[in-house]
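Residues determine shape. Next comes a sample protein:
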Amino acid sequence: MLITPEQAIKFQLSKGGIIISSKDFCHTCNNLSNEDFRAETEDKSEIPDPDIPGLIDDTISIIDSSGRNFKREREELEDLKTKFCAGCFNLSVLGQFKRGKSTLLNAVLGEKILPDSVIPLTAVPTIIQKGPKRTLKVHYLNSDKTDEFKTESLNEIREILNQYVTEKENPGNLKDVDYVTLTHPAEILKEITLIDTPGIGSTNIHNTDMTISFLPKCDAALFILSADPPITETELEFLKQIQTKVEKIIFVLNKTDYLSSDDIHTSISFLKQVLKENGFYGDELIILPLSAKNGLNAAVTGNEEMLENSGVSLVLEEIKKLAGKEKDRLLKKAVMRKFSVIIDKLLLAILLERRSLEMPLKDLEEKIGIFKDNAEELIKWRQYTGDLLVGDKKRIIGSLEDDCEALRKEATEKLMKSAVSELENNTNLDISNLQNTLNTEIPVYFDEALCRITGEYNELITTSLSEYHNRSLDMINSTRVLAAELFEIPAPASAGRDLLEIKYEPYWTSRISWGGISGIVTQSTIKKFMPDTYLKKKIRAEIERTISSLVIHNVENLRWATLQNISTSFRKFSNRLDEEIESAIDDTKGASEAALKKRQEKSEDIAGLIVRLDGTIASLKKISYGINRS
């Protein structure tokens, strides 16, 4: 319910107050707290749970009729409403490579349909939704194109899935897949959507980054750990990154079939202690013991007793809880948190305009002067920060160039050493073993180099931008706090959105042709008429030339991908920083200047405008209370 000016006046009269002017009315309405509304106007027995879509619609109506440009806030509200009304609860399944994620998901679905954990996944999430039959839809990056597959054969759909989500069949995501949607008739999917994510902590570090970038779509997570060991530093660091990105995390300790009951108890106690020491604490900390392997066997064979003993039944119970009332609570909590931030910013802007309309012109002009000085300082600081960002970016790129040059030399020396060793031990001049060795070693080497360099530069960028991020939010928040202090109004609780978005999508050449080398050694005439020493020299020269070419190509791909990631991260940060600074200035200096202009031009009935703004403020406060009470 929205509070109109008439209702606010009625409220004041009911308390014995007498409204004698619009100024008195302003003071009354702007000091009307949520507690006043709760104590004086609310009949708790008649108020149901907050109607979130209705509250969002009310807020949109308010800003549409405010006469102010709240385009971004309006878009954010529409997105929140869409998410809430869809009602689809997304549960992501997270875990380090080879912890048993896909085995658990197969057990939950009741059949072996997802790729085995022994096959590394590429950076492609699989969204598993309810459907009458098994179908598979492939969605591509930067394209509306999709490929859809329908088959009654479990083996066929599993094989098709392998073609798109495994490193073996889609190395480095060469097929440019964004994500895959799998529909499945499993009953557990009726109220919840499962999301299988790439394994974290493998040599493919871009899988970890893709998983993190996908988490805003998720509402809760199953985090799969293992008894060997219970938790690693990599997992702890990942958990710290995702802790604020999902509303709830349920921990599953897999591979407990290798432990005695005492060892399981000890492992869980140890794991709880480690998690609590790292910020995961409270009665809501859930750790479920599990044998995903036994659970899958039980699900496939229909052995209910084995399924119960495996721990899969416990996981299914927790998923069902999430799909029930827990789902609604977590989804509401996520939406309301974002909604509250938007309301705070709207209230600040409108309260400033309203106070500016009633304030003596001389005082208003003085305060606008202060705002102007503050805005100029903020802009100067932004320019100074921009120069520092350019310098940091240049320094990081320079470091990348040095590292890539060192990598070229290191890779060439290492691969040539392996090739020469294999060649010297080959008395028959049959280089099939040499060819197989290098074809295997080159992708592994560059995979490890990719992991190392991407990790280093991920840390460099994050360290650099995090410092500017924190200082930026402090500066932006100080602008709004200044406005609140000058006009004696509440400051918003949050300065703004997260400015950081670092996303890596490296790639490299992983399929290599060695046709030139094979051509030299397989020609019988060459082998017949050339001395072995000369032929070995020719082979070595050809190998050296080919390795040099492949190293240059692969390192350049790695360099280019990392360079693009550096540039994109700095550019997005700068753009978001500009937007937030512009928003802060418009919410403060802009609001006051707009009010001053109206007063100077006398183009509107100021008293009537104040009354309308008071109604708007009262309505937003009522909505704010509706959000905070939920």
